Request: fold
Amino acid sequence: MKVIPQTSSQVEVVSTASDAAIEVRSLHKSFGALEVLKGIEFHVDPGEVVCVIGPSGSGKSTLLRCINLLETPTRGKIWVSGQDVTDPDVDIDAVRRSIGMVFQQFNLFPHLSVLENLTIAQRRVLRRSRSEADAVARANLERVGLADKMTAYPAQLSGGQAQRAAIARSLSMGPDLMLFDEPTSALDPELVGDVLEVMRGLAAEGMTMMVVTHEMSFAREVADRVVFMDDGIIVEEGRPEAVLGAPQHPRTRDFLARVLNPGHRAPPLASDPTIA
Ligand SMILES: Nc1ncnc2c1ncn2[C@@H]1O[C@H](COP(=O)(O)OP(=O)(O)OP(=O)(O)O)[C@@H](O)[C@H]1O
Ligand SMILES: [Mg+2]
Reply:
């Protein structure tokens, strides 16, 4: 496990891409005077599942949104599948097409059936024929266990079904990697399991995934690596059993104590070598 001392002053901009699925160097993002990302160094390898955890407001969503260019970084570089997406000349639409994004809110079109929700972007953006788009959509609905909901409208789905439809919609675009931003946070507890099951399946198939989540048991079981963010930096990262089971940094310990045991705070460890 690495405890990563990150300060904006020590960050070095690397000008070459690597084999990583996602490579983030020296990423800063400010909204006006508010600096939200303060020099993020981060990568995801092809086929890797990385779970990002951290307190509310620590910049997790902003990091995801910078990776698929929903936000423009203030400073720093990001490569996706070797392509510099922070290059001003980049084809933003092509980058976004290669990245599946699943949000807390499902953003399905309410006036379209599930099948139409899955085919509209395939036809308009990827220029697939109706029959080809339908075939891809059906296969992906099958994959998420919703083959019987093809003709339903979003209002007729449970939250868990709607989220699985949203995942199937993303998959139908054939993404190289998938970003998930708290995909189960809006769901009733009994609906969370089905969505996590679909994500588990994707991970097992080798999909590259970056998942912002509060589901610690999912992170522990599925993630290859867990990244803990706090106040715009990555504080600690490593194998899930290390970060979640034996966190090195007091901020990680404090966060996990609050998440796993709400209402209690972790006692400080006087012998902690990472306390400056
Ligand atoms: N478009 C924006 N304009 C101004 N401030 C923003 C914007 N987007 C995010 N912020 C601020 O940036 C900070 C980080 O927000 P972000 O959504 O990335 O946090 P988060 O870690 O995803 O939190 P949560 O766990 O609550 O989703 C917050 O203080 C937020 O208010
Ligand atoms: Mg967020």
In short: The CA atoms of residues 228 and 234 lie 6 Å apart. The first strand starts at residue 2 and ends at 3. The pocket of adenosine-5'-triphosphate (ligand 1) is lined by residues 31, 34, 36, 54, 56-62 (CB under 6 Å).
